[in-house]
Design goal:
By secondary structure, the protein is mainly α. Helices cover 64% and strands 2% of the residues. The protein has 12 helices and 2 strands.
Length: 305
């Protein structure tokens, strides 16, 4: 990937999640805390008895729904930027690739979506995003809180051995959360990156093929960047000889249609392709996320907030 597209290819589509991450985490943790307080009001617990884990799951579930406003457009722009970049031919000159590189930027993708579909276009795949995020964040907070209790981490204590305990709890919680909803993430990504939606590439007609029965036509080999996306079922034109086994080019009619057609054409394995790097990434990212959250909350408590 670096050889064909340069070091920047490792960060294609990163602008969108960086911009959206602060807002998403703010909504996530604020919604979670507010829901926990509401549940405590409805069903109070005496003294220092922690709230039941069912409350924790419910609060995470509600927080996942609240995150929909930020997570859907962020994910849509990121995925489409990566798919456009994956159409690069590894062989031509940099000048030939420049038009596609310029159109695979997050800002360009955002403008194109809004121009063609309006603001509502940024929320294509919104329902499946909610179906992914609500239970996913429920598991996220449930696993984290359960691990904290099992590891006997005192509230507000972030130093010493508790640092490593918190990092472990946060990392494992993130990994379990992603494992629980990864098949839904595959479906979400497929719905948001269908070929009739991703058409900003000025050379699209020369780089993709219509799927008509078993007809095979030559096509430009996709770059190494597309390899990980192929594992998620986003790129089907993979060789100069023609298409790999791919579902019909007709747009998906919805979540169920996407799942059924993906299963029929590629088998059950399609729903876990690419899971390994996603799960490996989830551990360090969420270990740091939860640890920073605990640090901030501990400091706020010290100043009486």
């Amino acid at each position: 990937m670096i050889q064909n597209e340069g070091f920047r290819s490792l960060f294609k589509g990163i602008t969108s999640p960086i911009i959206g991450l602060a807002g998403l985490n703010s909504i996530l943790f604020a919604s979670y805390s507010a829901t926990m307080r509401a549940l405590e009001t409805v069903s109070p617990h005496p003294g220092n008895v922690p709230q039941p884990l069912s409350h924790v799951f419910a609060a995470g579930f509600v927080a996942g729904i609240a995150c929909f406003l930020v997570s859907t457009p962020t994910e849509l722009v990121k995925c489409r930027a990566q798919v456009i970049a994956s159409r690069l031919d590894p062989n031509p000159s940099a000048a030939a690739q420049r038009p596609i590189l310029s159109e695979s930027g997050s800002w360009h993708v955002t403008k194109d979506v809004v121009k063609r579909f309006g603001i509502k276009g940024l929320y294509q795949g919104g329902w499946v995003t909610i179906l992914r995020d609500a239970p996913g964040y429920g598991v996220y907070f449930l696993a984290y809180e359960w691990l904290k209790r099992e590891l006997e981490i005192p509230p507000g204590e972030t130093g010493g051995i508790n640092t490593w305990k918190l990092l472990f709890a946060g990392g494992l919680a993130g990994t379990l959360s992603w494992a629980s909803i990864y098949p839904l993430d595959v479906i979400k990504t497929r719905l948001q990156t269908q070929s009739h939606l991703v058409t900003t590439d000025p050379y699209l007609s020369a780089r993709t093929l219509p799927i008509a029965g078993n007809t095979l036509s030559p096509t430009v080999t996709t770059s190494l960047l597309s390899k990980s996306r192929e594992q998620r079922g986003l790129i089907h034109q993979t060789t100069r000889q023609g298409h790999s086994a791919a579902p019909s080019s007709a747009p998906y009619r919805g979540i169920v249609d996407c799942a059924v057609r993906s299963y029929r054409s590629e088998g059950m394995g399609v729903f876990i392709r690419g899971a390994t790097p996603a799960l490996l990434r989830a551990f360090p990212v969420n270990a740091v996320t939860f640890f920073v959250y605990e640090l901030v909350m501990a400091e706020l408590q010290k100043i009486g907030m």
